[in-house]
Amino acid sequence: MKVKIKLLNDKAKVPFKTYDEDFCYDCVATSCEEIAPNVYKYGLGFATEIVVPDFWQERYMCVSIDARPRSSIWKTGMILSNCEGTIDELYRGEISAVFYHVMPNMPRYQVGDKILQIKLGLTPTIEFEVVDELSDTARGAGGYGSTGK
């Protein structure tokens, strides 16, 4: 799969893996703006274009770039604002991420830090069918906590 990337400033880095076997690609912050008290928007300094093969388009496959926090985020006292982000296939602007700094006594990300990781997301197009009844299951309509601890 090919993803075209446009570097938007001289600090921008192409997403990278430390090890070939890594699942996701690390991204580095190139800018930081406090947009509300203890809320920071980090720019990654690049925009993307996912090159979707024709045979996927024929099968109605949707493609995106999924962004998620790095496992080392616990060292910062920060939380990615929406836990995981989706960059849609047709978006061409700078990719950015918003973090809440919920533990101000801990350090926050700085420009130049690896702040999140991305991977390619593939989703088949879903066809919803409105029905009057659904099939029965052992769980049924049991919700939050209904299966035990």
Describe this structure in words.
The chain is mainly beta and 149 residues long. It has one domain (2-124): Distorted Sandwich (Deoxyuridine 5'-Triphosphate Nucleotidohydrolase, Chain A). It is built from one helix and ten strands, in the order E-E-E-E-E-H-E-E-E-E-E. It has one helix at residues 54-58; strands at 2-7, 25-28, 31-36, 39-43, 46-51, 61-69, 78-80, 85-88, 96-101, 114-124. The strands form three sheets. A four-stranded antiparallel β-sheet has the order 2-10-6-8. The longest helix has 5 residues, at 54-58.
Outline of the structure:
Helix content is 3%, strand content 40%. With 149 residues, the protein is mostly beta strands.
